[in-house]
Amino acid sequence: MAGVPDRRSARQPARVRAGTRRTYSARARRRGAGRVDGGNRQRFVAVRIILVLVLAAAGVKLVHLQAFEAAALSAQAERQRVTSIEIPAPRGSIVDRNGAKLAFSVEVRSLSVSLRSMRRTWTEYARQHPESGQDFRTRAADAAAFIAEKLPGKVTEAELLSKFHKPADFTYLVHEVEPSVAKEITERFPEIGTENRARREYPGGSLAAQVVGVANWRMEDPDPYKHNLHGLSGLEFVRDGDLSGTPGRRLADTKQGNDNVIIPGTERELQPAVPGSDLELTIDSDVQYVVQNMLSDYVRGARARGGSAVVMDARTAEVYALATDETFDPNGPLDPKKLTNEAVTNAFEPGSVNKVVTAAAALETGVATPESVLEVPDSLQVADHVVHDAWEHPTQPFTVTGIFAKSSNIGTLLLARQVGEERFAEMLKRFGLGTRTGIGLPGESPGSVPPRDQWYATTFGNLPIGQGLSMTVLQMTSMYQAIANHGLRVEPRIVRAKITPDGRRVEEPTPGTGQVVSPQTADTVRNMLRAVTQKEGGNNNGTAPAAALEGYQISGKTGTGQQVDPRTRKYSDSLYNITFAGILPADAPRFVVGIRLDAPEDTLPQGSTAAPLFHDIASYLAQRFQLPLSESPTPVVPLVLS
After folding, report:
1. In the predicted model, is pLDDT for residue 89 greater than 80?
2. Which of 35, 168, 266, 276 is the most buried (most CB within 10 A)?
3. Which of 93, 105, 110, 352 is flagged as catalytic?
4. Domain encompassing residue 164
5. Please, are residues 310 and 274 in contact by the beta-carbon 8 Å criterion?
6. Residue 575, SS3?
């Protein structure tokens, strides 16, 4: 029909258009899918590249670790599971001159426990075996009861329980356990650990304790596997390097974690310990014992604050005894106040024993002879100070021998003036005053002598009579050793030799010597001082007849030195140092004995002199060493001529 479009022709464009849209949509989908496939391929390639790079880096690292760091990493891993343990070196012994042991070590064990590991182990055991009724609490109770039973008197069950339950990861249970007992305990309770220790034994107890000293191991050491003995005082301290040896080293595997618990059976020795050397002393145990006890008894009887005594060989200056009245037992609790040896650490003003310097100087310089006579008053003006003799007397003619036998302060000062200050100062130095003797004991005091350029007008009125300077008992004895040894002063010594672990004997260095005065002067002074023990009545009495020993000639000198009152800082009228130095026998010197008493009560007969104590010591020495009797009695000489 005209004017009316054919429906098919009218719909055709729509179909065509729809088909076209479908065609375009399919193509678009195909193009989108292509883009997706391409993106996936790109991501896949990127991932593969990353994986290759990662694997390559890991391979490089692996090669580096295996080729270059393997040893270091292995060592680090070993350190993490291996503990280095010190093997204590056997400490050397200390013996006297005859081989008697004064100190030695015995092997013991310390028991310890890792509380952290023990709690963990027995808590886990209780969880896995609830029917057993066993846990940490019951295990600790069993161990405490067993250990206390095996160590009666050493530790109680209650003390052990307290240690087991304290809030800590580790604790020591008990020390110094016999090895056989420790083995029995650890076999019954494997969680209890042991450490090898050494216990120092002092068989003589307080015998020469200040000389020998004391050694112990230090619990404050942060390393629980380092427990070598160390010296705390005396020769144990000052010769620690010789005695202690060189610790060894062993390795042991430890459990993982922070317990540091050693795995049984994994210990192996890395380096053996080298034992310490023995020390052989000059001390004679018998002489030391007798002198120590005689001194203590005498100090107690004189009600003195203390005392010291030295016995020395007249020729070699070897010390046979070095005693103080108060000592300690190194096997028991320690009192720090008693560890020091006052015979070498305490310097004091000696009084008239120092007059031997004036006697030696007067004879050496030729200003006097033993028979020379001086008119001696009982007082003398020295600058603004008046010096007195110990007793009142008119001006009298004293022989030089009499001046020292009767210990006249005034006669001594008159002789010192003739000697002169310079020569007197030189003689003090020759006798070793103001310097340490070098005996090798800790804390030795050098004493004191005022420097020559600091002498005041009154200084030369004090020094010749033993005031205004100080010395130790050891220094005092050393002075008289020079007189006994023909004027040759030998540095005193107390160690004779070191015995190495292989048995080799190493003598101590030769002591220093010095000729203080000529042999003739020394022998003359020694002969003069025999008159100190003279007892002929009246003016012919010396100051120490009580020091005389029947059958032997004795030379000696008494001393009374004023102490400074700590409150007034002035010389006291009641506090004195009482001293005595003697030579036995005077005609063939074998021993020199020096004694000091600290502030004895002067109201007691023996408080005014140490001569009776010297007599007792000399009597013992003569018998102990079977000293030959003197060939002739001590000659009687005039002391005061009117």
Report:
1. yes
2. 276
3. 352
4. 83-281
5. no
6. strand
Q: Are residues 259 and 358 in the same domain?
A: no
Bridge partners, residue 628, by sequence: none
Q: 493 — phi, psi (to 5°)?
A: -140, 155
Same domain, 451 and 590: yes
| Cβ atoms of 533 and 307 closer than 8 Å | no
pTM: 0.81
Confidence band of 5 (pLDDT split at 50, 70, 90): very low
pLDDT of 485-504, one tens digit each?
Answer: 999 999 999 999 999 999 99
Residue 22 inside a domain? The answer is: no
Are 379 and 405 within one domain?
yes
266 SS3 class = coil
Query: pLDDT tens, 257-311?
Result: 545 556 655 666 678 889 999 999 999 999 999 999 999 999 999 999 999 999 9
**Of the candidates 233, 251, 281, which is a domain's last residue?**
281
CA distance 600 to 300: 9
Cis? peptide before 585, omega within 30° of 0: yes
Q: Which tokens hold the place of 268?
A: 């192996």
| Cβ neighbours for 337, distance < 8 A, ≥ 6 positions apart | none
Eight-class DSSP state of 552: B
How far apart are the C-alpha atoms of 121 and 588, rounded to whole Å?
78
Looking at residue 525, which CATH number applies to its domain? Answer: 3.40.710.10
Please tell me the predicted confidence (pLDDT) of residue 269.
65
